[in-house]
Amino acid sequence: MKLKTLSLAMMSMAVPSMVAADELLVMQQNENNWVMPAGNYANTRYSTLAQVTKDNVKDLKMAWSFSTGVLRGHEGNALVIDGTMYVHTPFPNIVYALDLNNYGAIKWKYEPNQNYDETVPVMCCDTVYRGLSYGQGKIFLNQADTTLVALDMNTGEPVWSDKRDDPKVGATSTAAAHVFKDKIIVGISGGEFGVRGYVQAYNMDGSVAYKAYSVGPDSEMLVDGNTTTSMLKPVGKDSSLKSWQGDQWKIGGGTTWGWYSYDPDTNLYYYGTGNPSTWNPVQRPGDNKWTMTIFARDLDSGMAKWVYQKTPFDEWDYDGVNENILVDQEFKGQMRKLLVNFDRNGFAYTLDRVTGELLVAEHYNPHVNWATSVDLKTGLPNRVQRYSTAYNGEDVNTTGICPAALGNKDQQPAAFSPRTGLFYVPTNNVCMDYEPFEVEYVAGQPYVGATLSMYPPEGETHLGNFIAWDAREGKIVWSNPERFSVWSGALATASDVVFYGTSGRFHQSS
After folding, report:
1. Does domain 31-65+177-509 have CATH number 2.140.10.10?
2. Which residues belong to the signal peptide in this entry (predicted)?
């Protein structure tokens, strides 16, 4: 296939025998483009551009602006490919191609035809959408109604589409599709409606390669009890089924609405699974595997190589979907292929991404109180009974839990700079009261079972921080307190300037 989108400069980098499967490996090296949601396979959100420095950043001015016309939560960034910016909106998931050489003039627009009454009422939380992806001359749109659409990047015309699930049972899509090599990986949202989470892989022609669930029988999860490991040990046969009571796993959550990353060297891709359903832990005793879990899967087959469950038997809605950032760093005198994850539960995890070995697990917010630490040998959190909503029971309001359900960091992505070796993390500083109650499952109806109230930690005057984190030591290097929660993502640059935003302000730090 001719690679129409490569610039002349980039094409000179490619060898004549380069196949389409190698396309993104080349394209992500072009500093003038942003060809995937995180900028690169590793999810570092790092730009090698260095023109903006700490000395001239004060001179930045708006060149032009563009209104999408949709006044709901915008999450995820645009793509930039050879002078064209591809912009997405929340529901109804409009896609615009803007000409960057002509002040953002619209080159084409695509607006899906989706059923508002079926889809929007079951979306959580807000009608957000986290971005587009590119591959082989196509822009991939993962619509809210679970339809994956391939658009011709030059015209916006649909090439193919596939609807994989049904909003009538609460299944929706808020995450970006992710293109790795010759596969398109999509997840599913709807844990608050009892949707059973999964990832689905498509080939570039729109055919389905495989589907792998988060919970349930080994064959449906693409897990092998003998070869799939957790904490370096085989998980054993029916590891998920044995951790649920009865058939609760069938409506067990573990949805997959976060950011994904990929390592071409190992051919493994990484993602997190969300909270178990329902939020009332009394109704689902057990570890609820493999919700709240980091998965490492083979891209070609979908088989899970290793899993790590961060919050077994989640009692607080600490969704485990946050991005996994892949870096190669020296760790205790040895170069390691690392994976770093800042979880909603307030712990930052550093793992060997080849084996799944847990290397570091430390608080990245000093107010975390539901667990004192994580045992590096077992991987289990050392919980504080006072804050256990299951122990305190149904219809009991457990107070003062930190962090709140929205986490010390939600899906808003962190960045990594290879120049400094540090991670730059937008965080929340919020605690909560949590009261579980009994709830009955009805398809397409909310399946939550808890009442929450949220507030700042006692004595705090700010709801957020922007921190620099050393993942090898497990410590904060510096912190910028913010009045409001830092709900933006972060961008690190080669000029040692990092950018983020808050409610009302755009920031840079160096």
Report:
1. yes
2. 1-21
